[in-house]
Amino acid sequence: MVDSSPVTSRDLADELTARREKEPVGNALLDAAADGRLSRDALRRLVSTEAQCHLAELGAYGTALARFPRRPAADLCIQLAKLVYDAQPKLQDCAQALGLHDLYGSDRPADLTGYTFNGTLSWLAAQGSQAAFALASATDLEVYFSGCAELVRYIRRSGFEAPRSFLTYYEDEASQDLKQLALDVVQDGLDRGDDPKDAVFCARLLEESIGDFWRAAAGPA
Known about the structure:
Number of helices: 9
């Protein structure tokens, strides 16, 4: 008997998790740490790459808010923008502790991989459906925060020297409430007729761009 029940946001999240386990995008920065190749320069590259992402994120969340100015989508965009906005002074503290003083000039990444996430997120905000944008946001929260937290755990275990401001910034876990809000927005989009397959495609695309984010931070192998 064919199951004709509608696809839910949880179904899509589970599909992405299953694909992540079967076809992992990988985290080049964690790979470098595991191989003993983590360096202070990698921490600098991580911070400088993240600074560029902040600029793109604020613009993307504003764009998505203009396109979906209704609850719960508007709530998600506002909370994501506030998350990034509140993080910027803390990231500046990390930069200064690592000797970076021109994040948007001479210290910014020189390679394309440092900007892949920015382009993908901006495209989703401008062109993606509500469900696609929200599912990509949920994926970002899941993958980015877990990767950062694992990096900090490695640093603490290994005794690798890193500024306290860096550890404090990158050890935070993603808010469960915010991840649930993102899935609520996905569900609202599905209920409005958004294509679930397109949402999964877009979320996976963003996850792959986060792979480039880690590669930009890790630097040459």
